[in-house]
Amino acid sequence: MPYALLASGVLALLTTVNALWPRRGRLLLIPGFFTAWLTIELAPWVLVIEAVVTALIAGAGGLAGPAGWAGLAATVLGWAGLAVVMARARRTTVTVREWSAELELDPGERAPAFPRSHVVLPFLMTRRAGVTRTRDIAYGDEPDMRLDVYRPSEPGERRPGIMEVHGGAWMIGSKREQGIPLLNHLAANGWVGVNVDYRLSPRVKFPDHLIDLKRAIRWYREHAEEYGADPDFLCVTGGSAGGHLAALLALTPGVPEYQPGFEDVDTTVRAAVTFYGVYDIGDLLDGSKTFASAMERHVMGVRRAEDPEAYEKASPAHRINADAPPFLIVHGSLDTLVPVAQARSFAERLREVSAAPVLYAEMKGAQHAFDIFPSYRTARVIEGVERFLTSVRRAGHPV
Question: Membrane-spanning residues where (predicted)?
Fold first, then answer.
């Protein structure tokens, strides 16, 4: 048993070290990301599980030799690291308060609280009191072109709309697994959420993903009132590849090549909230030959060397314009999949050009995809997103 405690302690220490300093090498990038992501956002759960395992092994004779005591020491060091991880997560409250101070809201008005029970028991996130979800509504002819609608259970006046775009490197992902905590919270506070599936690569190539999402906006304009939503008020949000596509939706309203056959449809959005998005595809490709090969072959369908203009047109950083709607850009400081420098640069350049508000929020100690389930950090960020969107609605920023 001493060696079991040693192995347990070393594992606890290594996972914590990876959460504090995530691995970025090619071989460890993906496993390092998943391990760090889960350890960071589920740190209290990890601590409890490790404490139970350590107590069981120690009680069974794990401290009978030097190896066991070494394992216990490694475990305690790992717990000290987890304390740092949790302290960083707590700083989210300060970050959200800082960006909320810039909003056009009554300083004394309290933000609607995210359910504490969902943070303690993340599996509860698929259900929210006062919210009705309608699944798998067709907005196009293809089987993949389906969306879910989240809305308040109680009828009311025409409500503002928000569209969620899932991520997954343009090749995987689904509305069934992303954006759920945010859409439930917004619906519980008077919004109508639309969670969209779109066709994925390699079956289709860019810009088909973007065209599908503009078709979803067309559906919203035509059917919003059936679900109690305002057809003239729609915001957009998304993470990772979804953040990339959400930013493009906000920056390319009415571009004919992205609206074939429905060029006259109004595809403007009132605001964009992008999480850990890809804003410059060329810059991302420069950082990874493996990713560049997959992106060129499966997503873009053309090599960058052969058509560099296609990559610029597909990058939000190259579509910035003065008519951009208000943006809230959120990124984790420890993101190993999309470097935080992309978000910093995009926010800075957008502020220089856009006439609308541009807010940037960097989550200290957060990895990619931190908002998939309702951790403490996720809850505070979602509360802040609700405040941002509410301020946009009340201020009536033109589009």
Answer: 67-87
E-assigned strands of the chain? 131-138, 146-152, 159-165, 192-196, 229-239, 272-275, 327-332, 358-363
Clarify whether 335 is annotated catalytic: yes
Token readout for 136 is: 């798998």
pLDDT tens track for 150-201: 999 988 889 999 999 999 999 999 999 999 999 999 999 999 999 999 999 9
**5 against 229, higher pLDDT:** 229
Q: What is the pLDDT of residues 259-278, one digit of tens each?
A: 999 999 999 999 999 999 99
pTM to 2 decimals? Answer: 0.94
Say whether 233 sits in a helix, a strand or coil. strand
Q: Are 159 and 152 within 8 A, CB to CB?
A: yes
Q: Are residues 172 and 265 in the same domain?
A: yes
Q: Which phi and psi (to 5°) does residue 28 adopt?
A: -100, 5
Tokens of residue 72, six digits: 């216990």
Q: Please tell me the distance from the alpha carbon of residue 73 to that of residue 83, in angstroms, as a whole number.
A: 15
Sorted by sequence, the CB contacts under 8 Å of residue 160 that are 6+ apart come out as 190, 191, 192, 229, 230, 233, 234, 235, 270, 389, 393
Q: Which of 280, 354, 368, 375 is catalytic?
A: 368
> Which range marks the domain in which residue 50 is found?
2-90
What CATH number is associated with residue 254?
Answer: 3.40.50.1820
The single residue of 100, 240, 375, 391 carrying the catalytic annotation is 240
Same domain flag for 43 and 142: no
User: How many Cα neighbours within 13 Å face the side chain of 203?
Assistant: 9
